[in-house]
Amino acid sequence: MSDFETIAxxxxxxxxxxxxxxxxAPNQPDNAGKVRSxxxxxxxxxxxxxxxxxxxxxxxxxxxxxAFPTVFTSxxxxxxxxxxxxxxxxxxxxxxxxxxxxxxxARTVHGASTSIxxxxxxxxxxGLIAVVIGMLAGFYGGLLDAILARIIDIVLGIPLxxxxxxxLKARSSSxxxxxxxxxxxxxxxxxxxxxxxxxxxxxxxxSAKGQDYVHAARMLGxxxxxxxxxxxxxxxxxxVIVVMTIAxxxxxxxxxxxxxxxxxxxxxxxxxxxxxxxxTQRVRENAIPLVAPSAFLSLTVLAFIMLGxxxxxxxxxxxx
Length: 320
Description:
This protein is mainly alpha-helical. The chain has twelve helices and no strands. 66% of the residues lie in helices and 0% in strands.
C-alpha cells in the first residue's frame, strides 16, 4: 500500500497535465524543437526501462497462454485417473500428475485464464467505482465530499480478504456456474478494493479543477459534466491506471487465497489457488504439483506489480 500513497503524494505536488496531456507549466522543447509532454516523456522513459520491458514480456506471455491454452498443451485438464495419482514427470505430462491423477501442466496452463480474468475484471470494476466516486467527491466538495470521504474510510477499514471470506461464505446456489462464480468473486473483490484509487482520483481532481484551462472552459459555457469528462477525467486516469495495474496483481493473489481457503472458485473451475490447496496435502510425496502453479502465480503477480511500479516512476516528475 505504500506505493499507492506515494502516487497520491506525487499527484498533489506534480504539475497537473492539461486536457491533451501537456503540463500547465511552459512546455519545454526537446533538441529537435518538438514540444515535450508528460505522456511523451513517460513513454520515452518506459521504452528504456528494463523492468517495464521484462514485465511486459512476462504479462504478454501469460495473457497469450490464458487466451490460447491449447497452443501449450493438448491434454484435457479435467481428464483425471486415480491410477496415475502423484506420478512424476513423463513425456506425456512434463509436470507429472496431481493427487486426483490430473495433468499438472495442463491444469496450470488452463488455470491462467481464470486467474487473469478475475484480476482484470476486478481491477476494471474497482477502477470504475473509484473514478466515479473520486470525481464526484473532488469536483463538488462540500457535504458530498464529506459523505463520500466517510464512506471511503469505512470501506478502507474493512480488511479485503476478511470481507471477501464473509461475503463468499454466504453465496447462493445460483452462483454454481462458471460465470456465476466468476462474477461473484469479481464483484466482491471490487466492492472492497476501490478505496485507495478513489482517494487518488479525488486528490487529482482537486488539483485539476483549479487550473486555468478548467476556468477557461467554464467561461466558455461548458457545464460541469463536460468539464469533468473532457478536461478533468484525462488527468485522473494516469494515476488510476498505475494503481489498478498494481492492484490487478493483488486481486489475482486474493482470488488464489480465497480459492486456497475453499471459499473462492469451486469445481469445475480450474484455478491456481485450488490446485495449490490440493497439492499441499501430499507435498512431501511430490512437490511439483505445488511448485508449478505457485511459480506461475508468483511470476504473474510480480510482473503486474513491476509494471505498475515502472509506470509510476515514469509519470512521477520527482523521480526523473
